[in-house]
Amino acid sequence: MNSDSDLQIAGDILEVPHLLQAPREHPATVAEFAGLVRSLAADRSAWEHLVRYDATTRWYHRLRTGPGYEVWLLSWVPGQGSGRHDHGASCGVWTVLEGTLTEHTERGTHALEAGTQRVFAPGYVHEVVNDALEPAVSLHVYYPGLTEMPMHSLQCSAAAAPEDATADASDAAPAR
Prior knowledge:
This protein is of the alpha+beta class. It has two helices and eight strands, in the order αββββββββα.
């Protein structure tokens, strides 16, 4: 007679090395990059003392690098914005650490509060602005590391006219 109750495992199954996946030293999947962003966001001692605010330009600091990826810390005083851009061949995950940031895309406008996390693919066009009255801080992971940030001349708007989409395609960086 062969049934599930006939199966018995002798010893500790976790002692069989080939059944265990070795822990990764660095993230390799979207979920692992999102986890890296969450863990860094939760560890305020790793970034809080580094934050600077500059009224004349956006401030940024490369917090960490790993095989093929970079982690950046950015601050935003009220009124500062990124301009409409994409990240070339890089994909990424970013989160708001403090304050509120507004993201404008062709699909609409979203207010992102502390703890909100966004994931994007290569070529994703957006504009990030601090429309609030208080400064904001954000954390960004790019994979592969950021090598270009093509700017786009048209403003992101959910109500963009169809001819704007044609102009947008001509401004985009070539695909890699």
